[in-house]
Every structure is written in structure tokens, then in C-alpha cells.
Specification:
The complex is a heterodimer of chains A (266) and B (428). With 266 residues, chain A is an alpha/beta fold. Chain A is built from 11 helices and 5 strands; from the N terminus they run αβααββαβααβααααα. Chain A has a 5-stranded parallel sheet, sandwiched between helices. In chain A, β3, α4 and β4 form a beta-alpha-beta unit. The longest helix of chain B has 32 residues. The N and C termini of chain B lie close together (11 Å). The chains are: A alpha/beta (266), B alpha+beta (428). Chains A and B meet through α2, α3, α6 and α11 of A and α1, α2, α4 and α5 of B.
Chain lengths: 266, 428
């Protein structure tokens, strides 16, 4: 079996998921044009969504989803032991995602909205959703909801070649003005571009849709002046906060001291 | 006593597990558990303004984000009495079709086919079945292309908002998409032919089939809820007929229709709406020599393959239209309740919102297709195991067959899990 030994030399890549929508994982499989080529260069040893036989021990492991149950946490800790590089894939893994919005609301109220038809059971206490770097060391972050598939491939290529991935740290406005879009704020539409990390080529504003911050807050975002900016333009900053906190409630609340994007370690 | 504990069922979307207890040749327990963590979407959207809701509910599922988008927007529009243009409806249907093409292609080739051909995954098939894998990738790309050009992103589309679209595809894009669809039709037909050739296991179960039925159009984003047994109700009345139950062992709820088990999805659509299929799709279906209704759940795979042909053709005819940007929609907010039912790739999806005068969500209820299918799925698994035990089959064979049956249902566990956090004992 010559083939098999050859296979062993390839970097072992895995994709695992905890609570989330599985969209990030799908983005990875949707690289239709290069998927087969890529699989020549790496060996995909774990991907429970499309493989029946899944191995352990990885060189690079992508994890999507946020920690929302005890099971998730146990798995995550196990995976960290098994891999050399851990990459947080997508908004949930990087910032907590939609499910972390509960932090901003009264938790009981949220749960009552869901349980109101049912007798309450004490066993049903959920774990509040947090991004994975609350529990384990993360080597690299790919933000976005869902992350761009080109970016995933790029990061994978870099890691496989032993190159430290590059971090994009400019505001969405930067790329938006490069694309010569007409500023949405000037048109009277609430947009979070000035405060949010770019790298998406200002996708949403290019389609006349406001940026809602799926790639996380900028490291040096000035929230106070952001609010003032919106107030000056005649918006309601509190409404803005409601929009902003969709993907990154924790970051916004200041719980998050370690900011994704800056902690790439070799 | 034998226990089968499939802790993480592979090759399905999300996290599900199965617990089976067998004593001698008797089945003691069979529980299908959804172990996806609870995310409380219905609680999260509470007190959100109407224009933020779609973005949140779309994230319920990566595979059927377009279906959630359409259901959510239509329900909100119904609540506020907003009328949308013909063009908007067309674009929304195209979004759903794009998503359906890629969802079916992914399921058929990447999740279901390896079982039939005896491989562990589609990636392992590349050596011998390269052509099939390439067709799969092309079809996935086609679906992605449709969603991306119309919705802005391949997943979680954002151009569709309450009242209309923030951007529409220009003529060049429409021409490109039509050309791509034309190229893909032979591939869709090959897919259908491939699945016609595959042998399905013998297995039948008694249940009802439910799908949407509009007057003229193919069912997708509107219509009444109709069943094979003759039920015909408006989407708003769903809560009178569908009751959801909580099982102590699952984060997803189990549904019943009028107290009966029922099925939604591709097979249900073909069983109830066969007449609506395109001519090519009908012709292909006739080659199977099957009598309707089909009670064998394994045929859901074939139904999806036939549908693939239908939707590729339908998308091409929908694109025959002069799309023009209508300007950003302006909404007059008002209080009310709105319900919408759409056909997601896996079956009917209900969204139900109650808004206050300022357009903030006060109450929300979402019923996903997989939650509706769960009870029938669990019952089918139980029947299958009983049958196989009678034939004195070994444990490995039973596990393989059961997994295949569950996969044929194309469950989406991320979607269905939204309720309870559970704890269960696992003994080895």
C-alpha cells in the first residue's frame, strides 16, 4: 500500500462543529472549483458531516459554533489536545454569534418566551453561549457569518506552508470607499461600517444593505464617538446597539478582553 | 441485552444520536435524540425590531437559510399588511430554488450516495466515480451561484428585506445564470437517472404526507397546507392542527398533525403534488414504474433527484423577466400577527410573529421541517429494527440500515433543536 504511506505525509486537517448552524462548515465544502485539488494536498481526516469514518489527531483543526452545552465544552477541550493548530471558524466560534445575544437580555425572559407552553423543568438549564477562546487557546480566527470561502482556503494554504496568516485590521469603511460606494450613513441608513472589522470587501454596503458587524468590532473602535456620529446624523444609538449586538454581544459588553484577530501565535 | 448507541450520526446536518436497547430479539427502547445545543431563537428575536428579525432567524440553519429568510420576511409582511411586487416574489422563489438545488445535490451525492455504492464518503469515491463527484460539485456551484447573485452571499442572504430587495441582479447576471442553468439541466437529468438505477430497500410504513399547494404555481413560498388524507388549511391555522410535544431526551420537539404521524419533504411533495412537476421530471419519474403514493421513506432520495430536474427548469423560466431596481422599500409599521409557511428543502417551515405598534416582536414561534418529521422518523427506525430482528440480522447490518434510513430523511438537526437542553445517561 504505497498510496497509504504517501497519504500519511500530507497535513492532517479536520473540521468539527459544536452548537451553530453548520454554515461555516458548508462554506468550506462549497469551494467547488478547488475542493478536489485541495484534497490532493491535504488529507481531510475528520468531517463528520460528510464522512462516516473520522480519525483523531490533526495538524490543523477548524472548529465552528459556540460553546452552548456541557457536551460542546468536553468536545472542545478534547480537540484542543488533539491538534497543533486550532482555527476558530465563523462568527459563533470567534465572537459567540447570534445565540450569545442572550447576554444582553434578561435570560429568564428569553427562556420563558420559549418555554411558555411547557411545564418548567429544572434540568433544562442551558449553558450560556460563549466563543471558544473563553475555554481554549485559539491559534487563528476567521470571522464572518459565514466566512468567505476564499479566506478559508487562503488561511489553510498559509498554515500548511508554515506561513503565519495575515490579519486584516481595517474598518469596513476602508474597503467601502475603495469600491466608491455611496455612504449609507449619508443616505440616512444606519450602518456599522466605521466600527467593524473589514476584510469582506464591504459586501453588504455594496448591495445597499447596512453593515451589521458579522466580522466583529475593530480592536480600536471608539464606541462613544461612534454613538455620537450616529446621534449627529439623527439616528438612535440605542437602536444601533441592538443591531450591533447580533453577532458580538460579549465583545460589546466588554466581557471580551482578548480580542480575536490579534492573537496569532506561531 | 444489546445496546446500540450511535453517539453522533455522521453524514447528516448537525448533531443527532440514536439510542436503542434490544433484549434477545425484542426491541425495548428506541430513542432518536437531537443533541444540538439549544439556542433559543424564539426567545432571542423577542423585542427585536422587524427589520432585524430576518438576519437573526436566517442563522437558524446554514443549509436552509433562504427558506428561513423567506418565511420570516413573509410572516412579518403579513403581520404589517405589506404587499410585495411580483418581482420580489420571483426573486425570493429563485433564492429558494438556488438553495434547494445545492441542498439536494449535497444530500444526494455527499450524504446518501456513498451508502449505496459502499464508500465511507463522497471524497473516497473520487477514484472510481470522479464524474459523479464532479456533477455534484457543479450542481452545488450552480445553487450557490443563484443564491449569491441574488441574495448577495452564498449563505444567509441579506439583500432580501421586509417589503422588497436592496439590490436586484442586472441583465448580465440574469443572462449568465440562465446559461448556467441550461448547462446544468443534463447534469440534473443524469442525477435523476443515477438514482432511478439504485435499488431501494423494501420497507413501508403507514403515515400521512403534507405539503404546500397553491392554485397554479409549484409550491414553494406560498399556498395552503394540504395533506394526502384530504386536509386543506390556511397557514395561519397551523397551530390548531399541529401539536408539538417535548420528549425528555431531545432538544427538538416532536410534532403530530391531528394526532397522526406525518411526513414533509421531497417525497411528500411528489406524493401530494405530482401534477405540478415539469414535463421532463414527470417523464423521468415514470421510468421508475412506481405507484403513488410512495410509502417507502427511502424513496425520498429519488424524489429529491427528480425534483432537482424540476427546479432547474423552473428557475430558468423564472429568470425570464426584466428585473429593475424598485428603490429601497418603505414600510408603514403596524401591530398584528403574521404567519407564513414555505417549502424548505426538507419540508414545510412555519414562521409566526406577533408585532406591537412600533414593529417590535412580542411573540414568535417557528416550526421546522425536521421537527415535523422526527416522530415519523423515530417510528420508522423502530419498525425497521423490529423487522430486521425478525430476520435475525446482525447488529452491524442493523446499524448500517438504520443510519441509511435516517439519512434518507435528510434531517437537519441544527434547525430542529431549539427547545430543550437535556441530559441522558449513557451506559456502555
Amino acid at each position: 500500500m504505497v498510496k497509504k504511506t504517501k497519504k500519511e505525509l500530507k497535513p492532517r486537517v479536520g473540521v468539527q462543529s459544536i452548537t451553530g448552524c453548520a454554515g461555516c462548515q458548508l462554506s468550506l465544502y462549497f469551494i467547488e472549483d478547488v475542493l478536489l485539488e485541495l484534497l490532493d494536498k491535504i488529507s481531510l481526516v475528520a468531517a463528520p458531516m460528510i464522512k462516516a469514518r473520522n480519525e483523531e489527531k490533526y495538524d490543523v483543526l477548524f472548529v465552528e459554533g459556540s460553546v452552548s452545552s456541557k457536551d460542546d465544552l468536553d468536545n472542545l477541550l478534547k480537540w484542543r489536545e488533539q491538534t497543533r493548530f486550532l482555527v476558530a471558524l465563523g462568527a459563533c466560534a470567534c465572537h459567540g454569534g447570534m445565540q450569545s445575544m442572550k447576554h444582553l437580555m434578561k435570560e429568564e425572559e428569553v427562556e420563558r418566551a420559549v418555554y411558555d407552553k411547557f411545564p418548567s423543568d429544572k434540568r433544562l438549564k442551558p449553558v450560556t453561549a460563549v466563543p471558544i477562546h473563553k475555554y481554549v487557546k485559539v491559534d487563528f480566527y476567521i470571522p464572518g457569518c459565514p466566512p468567505s470561502k476564499d479566506e478559508i482556503v487562503q488561511v489553510l494554504k498559509w498554515l500548511v506552508q508554515g506561513i503565519r496568516p495575515r490579519v486584516y485590521d481595517k474598518a469596513v469603511c476602508h474597503e467601502c470607499s475603495l469600491k466608491e460606494n455611496y455612504c449609507l450613513l449619508d443616505q440616512g441608513i444606519e450602518c456599522l461600517g466605521p466600527l467593524v472589522n473589514g476584510g469582506c470587501m464591504a459586501l453588504c454596503p455594496s448591495y445597499n444593505h447596512p453593515c451589521t458587524g458579522c466580522r466583529g468590532l475593530l480592536d480600536d473602535a471608539n464606541l462613544e464617538s461612534g454613538k455620537q456620529l450616529l446621534r449627529d446624523k439623527g439616528f438612535d444609538p440605542d437602536m444601533m446597539i441592538k443591531r450591533m449586538t447580533k453577532y458580538n454581544t460579549l465583545q460589546f459588553l466588554g466581557f471580551d478582553t482578548e480580542s480575536p484577530g490579534r492573537s496569532t501565535k506561531k | 441485552m444489546t445496546r446500540i448507541d450511535l453517539h453522533h450520526i455522521c453524514k447528516v446536518e448537525g448533531h443527532g444520536s440514536l439510542y436503542v436497547e434490544i433484549r434477545g430479539s425484542r426491541l425495548i427502547r428506541c430513542e432518536l435524540k437531537v443533541v444540538e445545543g439549544a439556542r433559543f431563537f424564539e426567545g432571542i428575536v423577542k423585542d427585536k425590531r422587524y427589520d432585524d428579525v430576518q438576519e437573526i432567524t436566517s442563522r437558524i440553519c446554514g443549509i436552509c437559510s433562504c427558506a428561513h429568510t423567506c418565511a420570516s420576511l413573509q410572516a412579518l409582511e403579513n403581520a404589517m399588511g405589506v404587499r410585495v411586487s411580483e418581482q420580489t416574489r420571483r426573486l425570493r422563489e429563485l433564492l429558494s430554488i438556488g438553495e434547494r438545488i445545492r441542498s439536494h445535490a449535497t444530500h444526494l451525492y455527499f450524504l446518501a450516495l456513498p451508502d449505496y455504492l459502499g464508500y465511507e464518503s463522497a471524497l473516497a469515491m473520487v477514484g472510481k466515480y470522479k464524474r459523479e463527484v464532479l456533477i455534484a460539485l457543479h450542481l452545488m456551484k450552480l445553487g450557490n451561484n443563484l443564491v449569491q447573485r441574488i441574495g448577495g452571499k452564498e449563505m444567509h442572504p441579506f439583500t432580501s428585506v421586509v417589503g422588497g430587495f436592496t439590490a436586484v441582479p442586472d441583465r448580465q447576471i440574469v443572462r449568465y445564470l440562465r446559461a448556467e442553468l441550461k448547462k446544468a439541466l443534463p447534469e440534473a437529468i443524469l442525477t435523476a437517472k443515477l438514482f432511478l438505477k439504485l435499488k431501494q430497500p423494501r420497507f413501508e410504513s403507514e403515515k400521512d404526507f403534507v405539503s404546500l399547494k397553491p392554485e397554479r404555481d409549484a409550491p414553494l413560498i406560498s399556498g395552503n397546507v394540504c395533506s394526502l388524507s384530504g386536509l386543506n388549511i390556511k397557514p395561519e391555522e397551523y397551530d390548531k392542527y399541529i401539536d408539538e410535544q417535548v420528549m425528555p431526551y431531545s432538544t427538538a420537539k416532536f410534532s403530530r398533525l391531528n394526532g397522526r404521524m406525518f411526513n414533509v419533504g421531497a417525497l411528500a411533495r411528489i406524493n401530494t403534488n405530482y401534477k405540478m412537476l415539469s414535463r421532463t421530471a414527470k417523464k423521468l419519474f415514470k421510468q421508475a414504474n412506481l405507484e403513488l403514493p410512495i410509502m417507502n421513506p427511502y424513496y425520498n432520495n429519488l424524489a429529491q433527484a427528480i425534483e432537482l430536474v424540476h427546479w432547474v427548469e423552473r428557475a430558468r423560466s423564472l429568470l425570464k423577466y426584466d428585473f429593475r431596481f424598485e428603490g429601497l422599500p418603505r414600510i408603514r409599521v403596524r401591530a398584528g400577527r403574521g404567519v407564513s409557511a414555505v417549502e424548505a428543502p426538507r419540508g414545510i417551515l412555519f414562521h409566526d410573529y406577533t408585532l406591537d405598534e412600533e414593529g417590535f416582536v412580542k411573540k414568535c414561534n417557528i416550526i421546522t421541517p425536521t421537527a415535523q418529521n422526527l416522530r415519523a422518523m423515530e417510528e420508522d427506525v423502530r419498525q425497521l429494527i423490529i423487522q430486521m430482528l425478525k430476520k435475525k440480522k446482525k447488529k452491524d447490518a442493523i446499524v448500517f440500515e438504520v443510519e441509511r434510513l435516517i439519512r434518507a430523511y435528510d434531517p437537519c438537526f441544527s434547525c430542529s433543536a431549539h427547545f430543550l437542553k437535556i441530559k441522558w445517561k449513557e451506559k456502555r
